[in-house]
Design goal:
This protein is α/β, with parallel strands linked by helices. The protein has a domain at 2-70 and 92-157 and 253-336 and 361-386: FAD/NAD(P)-binding domain. 40% of the residues lie in helices and 27% in strands. The protein has helices spanning 10-22, 52-57, 59-67, 96-109, 123-129, 142-146, 148-151, 206-211, 221-229, 284-301, 305-335, 345-353, 364-367, 369-386; strands spanning 2-6, 27-32, 43-46, 70-79, 82-95, 113-116, 132-135, 153-167, 174-181, 184-194, 197-205, 244-245, 252-259, 263-264, 267-269. Strand 9 (174-181) and strand 10 (184-194) form a beta hairpin. The structure holds flavin-adenine dinucleotide (FAD). This is FAD-binding domain-containing protein. It comes from Saccharothrix yanglingensis. Residues 131-325 form the FAD-binding domain.
Length: 387
Amino acid sequence: MRIAVIGGGPGGLYFAALVKQVDPRHEVVLWERGGAEDAFGFGVVFSDGALGGVQAANPELFEAVIDRFVRWESVDVRYRGRTKSHDGYRFSAVGRQALLRLLRECCEDRRVVLRFATSAPPLPELRAEFDLVVAAEGVGSAVRSARAEAFGAHLEPRGSRYLWMGTDRVFDALTFAVVETPHGPVQVHAYPYAPGRSTFIVETTDRVLRDSGLEVPDRSPAETARAVAGLFDGDPDLLGDHRLICTGSRWGRFTSVRNDRWSDGNVVLLGDAAHTAHFSIGSGTKLAMEDAVALAISLTEHRDLPDALAAYEAERKPAVERMQRVAEISREWFERVEEHVGLPLDEFTVRLLTRSGRISHRDLPLLDRAHVERVRNWFSRTLASTA
Ligand SMILES: Cc1cc2nc3c(=O)[nH]c(=O)nc-3n(C[C@H](O)[C@H](O)[C@H](O)COP(=O)(O)OP(=O)(O)OC[C@H]3O[C@@H](n4cnc5c(N)ncnc54)[C@H](O)[C@@H]3O)c2cc1C
């Protein structure tokens, strides 16, 4: 089969590597408009300390990913200058750039044709030339926009504004900090991901961003980092003497993406192009890579493309929707954090940690245990039979 993959994020790269792993006869070409080392973002956190079915599909690759993991077992809630720690969680994180490099090497080993620093050709051209077009282009997917009606796309920009930054302060837990500024509360989601580095996501509302004058489009990344650090003057211990690291000055707006249908003829959506989940539950990368696993399996199990794409959607859509429900509650909680400000630290912490209702970070590994087993068995059986 000739397969075109648009987008060299974790979803697109992992799918390209896996589909060649199970059948090297496929011809797979992947376009990524950024350079090979240009990854946006800092670290990504995996909330259950393991990668479930994603890891089971290619354990050798994940040995190298896991080698780079920073691990910890607690969540810290920092509020009004005090921190409360809760143990008993399992988290790991890795630099996004390191993860993408490993996935890229895996694609190179399997002879995926990689076209970095190149935008994908127009969709009609790809559709005509390839048997399958995988749109793994992220939240701003042009393919999804061009065929919005066919996919039944629902895009809902939310009130949550964020800047994905890094810092040289090494946090030792997944840290949620809420800092009261003169303009309203600002949240920080921080966690370590590499020696000497932590992710530091600042989240707030449109109103706080406007009133604090922080949204200045032409500011340099260094000026932006300094201006954002000023938000935390009221809690100097949060950063201490450390600096913020910024690679761009654009504040993002979290956009909820859903699609009634994930394929349209020979075009299929994968990862953030198909669905988003608010970053406060740290699952987007894993969801995109789980899509990659499911699509690679479906294409091998089903002779007809429409059957394969239907099986992929039937497997992934309900699982994704479950995570999206949890993520929406979490997003809403952070957007309405003002309602909780003023509570004593203990009560504030309990409300934050139980914000997603029935499912907490502790339960996530249980959700996909059966799925992990299925993926492990499928890949070891399929690879053994093609060896
Ligand atoms: C602030 C923030 C923090 C996050 N933190 C976490 C976290 O801790 N853990 C986690 O699991 N997830 C996290 N996520 C989510 C995660 O980044 C995404 O879910 C994940 O990157 C989705 O992977 P993807 O492959 O679908 O898309 P992307 O990673 O967005 O990759 C899409 C790629 O397609 C390329 N592209 C787009 N259009 C074209 C084109 N026409 N031609 C060629 N290339 C194109 C883009 O350059 C991009 O590299 C976070 C997201 C945000 C915004």
